[in-house]
Design a protein that fits this description.
single chain, 713 residues, mainly alpha
Length: 713
Amino acid sequence: MNSPLAATPLQDPSAARGALRWLAAQTAGWFSTEGERWVFVAKTMLASFSALWLAFRLGLDAPYTALATTVILALPSSGMVLEKAFYRFLGTLVGCSASLLLVALFPQSPPLLFIGVAVWIALCTGGAAMHRNQQSYSFVLAGYTACMIAVPAIDAPDRVFTLAVTRVTEVGLGIICAAVVHDVVFPRRHSRAVMRTVQARYASFITFCTQVLEQRLTPAETELSHLKFAADIAALESGRAAAFFEADHPRSHTRQLHAFNAAFMTVLTTFYTLHRLIHRLRGAAAAHARPVLALVEPMHAHLAQAMGDELTAARMAQMRAGLASDIAGARLQLAAAPLERAQQIDFDTAVELLERYVRDMEAFAGLYHGLAQEKQQQVSDPGAYTPKTPPAIIVASGFRAGVTLLLTAGVWYWLAWPFLGNAILMATIFCALASSSPRPTALVQQVLIGFLVASPLAFATEFFLVARANDFPTLIIAALPIFVFGSYLMTSPRWAGVGIGICMFCATLVVPTNLMHYDVESFMSSELSLTMGVAAAYLMFKVILPEHTMGQKDHVAAALWREAQGACTASLYRLKRRFDNRVRDLLSQLNAASGPAPNEAARAVVRQGLTLLELGHAVIELRQLIAGSQPGPVPVALKLVVRQLAAYLRAPARASGETALQSILDAGASVRAALPSATPERQLRLHTALTDLHSIYTSLLDQITTGEPGHAA
């Protein structure tokens, strides 16, 4: 009798489920990292070759222009693609119109035509340096599109209208293909990225405030945090502008995001002013500072503890009540042991700033929760984010682009080499494109590396693969590898410029025209001229005004000083918001140019900028109080403070600084003399004026380094 067969062990179902969960987790991780890059590459290739196929079917003169447009518009999110597409089309229309006008004005005069084009490009490049986001790109397009049409029309001006119409058609076709593909095929919505930015900003600011209140950050770390927040403000505005173009983005969120950014700048400035006051007290003489700090620091500790919880409306009400209780207790202690006048003013200023900080934080938290919960909120229009580029950089950018065109045109005329027309276009394009970059030489250098890498690859692709293609599918197979390689590099922040260079180079040379002509000598001449053009742009940034680039610390410092002067003299209409925007934008430029580890010189500019920001806010509040006051000794004294401060900012000197300090002391005495007879409402405004005078006084002491920080107005 045979023995029974052994039972076959069953697979453990829990192990199988675990393996499936592990596989799902790994797949999800891949799709959120490397998978996203390959989806981007696939969408870029679909848009590019769809545009190329349509250009062939429509018989356009330069099908590669449509393909190049889709490559240039390839960006991570659909909102960014749509925004850039809109401004590219707008810039193309303006550039084509300008080229028609220039050729009409100088049809038989090539030197005058080149001068006219150079002036136009200089103006457009200067306009590009003034703006941010894709508005800058629109100016760039308007400039070099005129060059791309006017230069080929030099010998045949009667063709300029045909060239302009063809250019608009080809660019428009590429825009349509890129917009449709990126908005329909696996769309990546920028509005979601904006909300993630909002959440990260809110969380990081709460953490920052808590760490500062608990004295866990050094002054240097605090300054770098403010520099990073300035960059975050500009980045959120850029993201909001891109999300606006998405169909599913609620238009009401645009105003809410504006208000969120504005509220963030307000609470950040208030908190910085409070932090600087406490920092100055800790550095002052112990006999002066210790009694004040003993009253104020427990309030900081209670605020830090309260901010560890979710800042709902109920929680903010509790925070206000707790702060009011702490202030009342501190005032009882003062009644028993009064402080000296200077100490009393420091205490009153700290209390005023704490109360203002809690009010500003409540508004900021309310806007955040409304955005996070997608609630419709009625908010007043705070005004758009206002960028500020130093005038010297604007002029230098335009001058550099115009000189580049004239120099390359002169070399073209001298050498009489037809292919140098490509070099003129490339040099002009990249001088304009890089003008808004904080590191233009690094950007152009990466593109130049991309051109050099693409040269042998493009030659091999053109003469060993594309030349053997006999229909459109085989053409795609032949050209696809090099475009995939370039597009994949574009997904890496480190190699994005190289990828753009490879794709632009290949879009110009590898893609066939309607009537192909394979000529090795012509191909290599085109390769050389294109590369020479990018190299010329690189040299121009190295040679012509190399220190006049976006975010250069000396220009930022001078511009910050001018903004402080404007706080004393400019129109009061939305001045506080405009001043805050521009100072933050200048600090954002400095952050972009300085990189992740700013040197000591850049950090000195940050300190100066934050001090001027504190001073400017206080001056604007004083001017608003003056504008709403009845004639009397207090407004006269405050007006004198503003005048003396404006005189110091126009011509900084120790003598004018000391004069301004004395006027502040005199104004403080006038305000205190008016307090006993003032109504309760006016008393609140006078206390605010004393706080602002104190902020101005201590800020001036930081600038001119005279007197003791413990002095008060």
